[in-house]
Amino acid sequence: MTFQPIVPLSGYSGWRFLQRTLPVQQATFEQSAPIQRATSYFKENIAGIRSAEDLVANRQLLEVALGAFGLGDDIDNKYFIQKVLEEGTEDTASLANKLSDPRYSDFSKAFGFGDSSIPNTSMPNFSETIVSRYETTKFEISVGEQNSDLRAAMNVSSALSDIVSGSANKDAQWFSIMGNPPLRRVVQSALGLPDSIARIDIDQQLEAFKDKAKANFGTDNVSDLMDPDIQEDIIRLFLVRSDAQFSSATSRFSIALTLLQS
């Protein structure tokens, strides 16, 4: 049985509780039998995988590989995943680079099947790196089963890190944020931008994100958002605003229910 994270509070209070208890909760989660089975099998067998075809043919390995990048829902899309891996990331026309969600290019680059004659699966410490990401992501998913806002908040640091390391171009980094649904949700809400912004021209969206970031955090450089204090502000604003919206919706429902019952 997998350990279920304890999340007794919502909003920013829930986030602060989770941060205080995270080391103990995460360690307990990682020691649960299902996680141990999955990660042990991956560590023992991934070095023998030499091609994308080999990886997608092994469901147990593929589950951990995809899960590490939050792409577990693609477990049955084997042809698509094989193509993402085989085409790599060095060619700008590759499938991974064409997709708006940067998680696919991160996934493809990590395994290296399309970028090198020797895949990264044979590299030292490769299995430990992927397993660490898998354990973190699975824990976030478990948290999300109880509170989706807290899961989104937990994803911020790693998602921003992947984006900053993946490109030095400021606009490209913002487009990556906008193309990453979980991260976009947090940043967009923290900046006070409405959902309707998704309906305007993409370049106008970019300017809106940059303008709001500069107004709220004093910078429109994505690399500056890696600062722990700025990240905490992003998460706090996101959770406070999300909580306020939920409370407002609940209040409207209660009023409507009262009127119906009168």
Keywords:
mainly alpha; 13 helices
Describe the structure.
The protein is built from 13 helices and no strands. The protein has 262 residues and is mostly helical. Helix 9 crosses helix 11 and helix 9 runs antiparallel to helix 13. The N and C termini lie far apart (47 Å). The C terminus is likely disordered.
Would you summarize the structure shown here?
The protein is mainly alpha-helical and 262 residues long.
Indicate the mean pLDDT.
Answer: 91
- What structural class do the secondary elements suggest? mainly alpha
Q: What percentage of the residues does DSSP assign to strands (E)?
A: under 5%
Largest sheet: none
H/E topology pattern: HHHHHHHHHHHHH
**Count the helices. How many?**
13
**Poorly predicted runs:** 248-262
Task: Assign an overall shape.
Answer: globular
Helix content: 55-70%
Calculate the terminal CA-CA distance, rounded to whole Å.
47 Å
Provide the gyration radius in Å: 20 Å
Number of strands: 0
Write the layout of secondary structure elements.
Layout: H1 11-30, H2 33-45, H3 52-57, H4 59-67, H5 78-87, H6 95-98, H7 103-111, H8 126-144, H9 148-166, H10 170-179, H11 181-190, H12 202-217, H13 228-261
Helix pairs in contact: 2-4, 2-8, 4-8, 5-7, 8-9, 9-11, 9-13, 11-13
